[in-house]
Design brief:
It is a single chain. By secondary structure, this protein is α/β, with parallel strands linked by helices. It has one domain: TIM Barrel (Alpha-Beta Barrel), CATH 3.20.20.100. Strands 1-2-3-4-5-6-7-8 form an eight-stranded parallel beta barrel. β2, α3 and β3 form a beta-alpha-beta unit. α4 packs parallel to α6. The relative contact order is 0.15.
Length: 294
């Protein structure tokens, strides 16, 4: 399994545990140096991540080893129009220009509901066209739940999918969707493995929004402490045990955090998947940060 770099923090104030704000351009350069030294090859970005693409374009060499994945813009209506398709192409071409790349590894529909809306097939057709022009190697979608996966597999041929999975959110594991995606030979990238930092925070310090699971988080932290591992080690080792996942995306604010992640990823884990299963939740209002009211 490979570790990839999430870059929302490069262009936005992102993550509930982020007290440092947007990552500076100088710090991005240090992060990329650490990434290169540790064999990172995937970088995930999006036009919706503020200035992330521009910063990456200035800091990444044109012939670098990095495989870049970017995403579609936000579409405003419930039905995809020809104007939306034109915007997809225009935004994508702007993305590769900002990134200083002739092509990228992946292009994902940022919001799976866009693909599932009326005339969503127009988006895939345009993405296939970009792929046929060798501007992108793999096309796919970023999803939030198994229902979206089922509908997409029934309708569209995709190469790559980005899924949320972590100790609290094991829905795609229990439902068998991870294994099903692999049967379709779809490359799987895991995101939200720290759940925007929630899994790394002291439960006493989390927002009152999480009062309903505060005790659950305390029990989880006491459990991993009893096993002699840190929250970062636990979060990483949970997902690295999942053999269907190809790339684990991590979001960080500085190069020291990335060093910690690489150190943690090399440690063996005394916790089995069966033991991790007891901490899974099903409440979408907790598992999907889009519902958070902080």
């Amino acid at each position: 399994m490979k570790i990839g770099l999430g870059t929302a923090q490069f262009g936005l104030n992102y993550g509930i545990s982020n007290l440092l704000g947007k990552t500076s351009a100088e710090e991005v350069e240090k992060i990329l140096e650490v990434a290169i030294r540790n064999g990172v090859s995937f970088i995930d970005t999006a036009p919706g991540y503020g200035t992330s693409e521009e910063i990456l374009g200035k800091k990444i060499l044109h012939d670098s080893i990095f495989q870049i994945i970017t995403k579609t813009p936000k579409f405003s209506d419930n039905s995809i129009t020809k104007d939306d398709v034109e915007m997809l192409e225009k935004t994508f071409l702007q993305s590769i220009s900002k990134l200083n790349k002739a092509s990228v590894y992946g292009l994902l529909v940022h919001n799976a509901d866009d693909l599932l809306s009326e005339n969503g097939d127009l988006l895939i057709k345009k993405m296939q066209e970009l792929k046929s022009q060798n501007l992108v190697k793999k096309i796919g979608v970023s999803i939030y739940n198994g229902e979206q996966i089922e509908k997409i597999l029934d309708s569209y041929p995709i190469d790559l999918i980005q899924v949320p999975i972590n100790v609290l959110d094991q829905r795609l594991l229990f439902s068998g969707y991870l294994h099903k995606l692999k049967k379709f030979n779809i490359e799987i990238h895991a995101r939200s493995i720290f759940l925007q930092g929630l899994l790394l925070m002291n439960p006493e310090h989390v927002s009152s929004f999480f009062n309903s699971i505060r005790e659950h988080l305390k029990i989880y932290h006491e459990f991993i402490l009893s096993k002699g591992i840190t929250p970062i080690q636990a979060a990483l080792n949970f997902v690295t045990q999942l053999t269907d996942i190809d790339v684990v995306l991590v979001g960080i604010n500085n190069h020291q955090q990335l060093k910690e992640i690489f150190l943690a990823s090399t440690d063996s884990c005394p916790i089995s998947s069966q033991e991790f299963a007891q901490f899974a939740l099903t409440d979408k209002f907790i598992l999907n940060p889009g519902y958070w009211r902080l």
